């Protein structure tokens, strides 16, 4: 295929990764961002072997490891009894896999710095209202109807609230999920915590508290941890009205060891309320636009796959464009390559979410006793490790990737 003019809407991780892959393949890319200054949104996240493999393919493994924090296990316990109800270890699978917890600013800056270093243009302060396809070209318009750019292909990486996806012929049905979470990024140096694990405490399925050590947001800074507490988003204002000290007392009542973290929170403004929605754009393309990341699919964050899936989308789309004879053929190949993996993990997220965020005591009882017991019996530990890793269905071959050689990667980045 001849080099294409490609407009990429959204300068988040998905858009930045797509720009790097496609520019290196010889295409002309134009990144368009609605904010005046591109910046990360959110607190910490867990990079899985899937996302880490994509970053390694981009030559960014050393940079992200320098900021992130290695995670070897996910551990959850009942807040009242102390009983372990979740224990997923990456080493249940052969190969030396691990996760890497990162601050969103670290992931963003790693990708953004690479884009800037390669001289790729980012046009900022531009809001996109609609797309119009004419004669195999797709024009992007701002709210005033002015043409922002005209391209052979548009890639929508603007996230779960994408206006381009909502206005397309494949506009997804959006189901707002009732449960969300308060998030904060806190200092963790000098505070006792498990530095190699995502640790959670539960009270049935109504309370979930977690600490994820995420490394550094920027070189030279102290180490941080992402702290989260789940709740129904409709209850957020009620919780705030009851007061910050009451909220903190409730958390320490469930998990006293969180007190040093909570002492850093002195204002509600330090907390971000994350809201989640379930949506799928099928197929993930229409009228000259390819949808990647949350604009193509979003769900509950229980399995921590969001950013990892977005990076896989970018790699897979670039691979499809490199091996197809036309844009139309490439888009169909992209959709086919991602279909199985996306559907599987959306289904798993749908199934797992009620076990950790719901009003059901019976589901929580089942989780704490039956599921926790079965999870210890092979091959359940291996299956759980594959689910968390994002590799229960092969995500690499359809994206034209080879998985990292993990022992070598760990040694190289240590």
UniProtKB/TrEMBL annotation:
Annotated keywords: FAD, Flavoprotein, Monooxygenase, Oxidoreductase
Annotated FAD-binding domain residues: 5-343
Pfam families found in the cross-reference section: FAD_binding_3
InterPro entries: FAD-bd, FAD-dep_Monooxygenase_BioMet, FAD/NAD-bd_sf
Gene Ontology molecular function, alphabetical: FAD binding; monooxygenase activity
Span of the signal peptide: none
Official protein name in the record: NAD(P)-binding protein
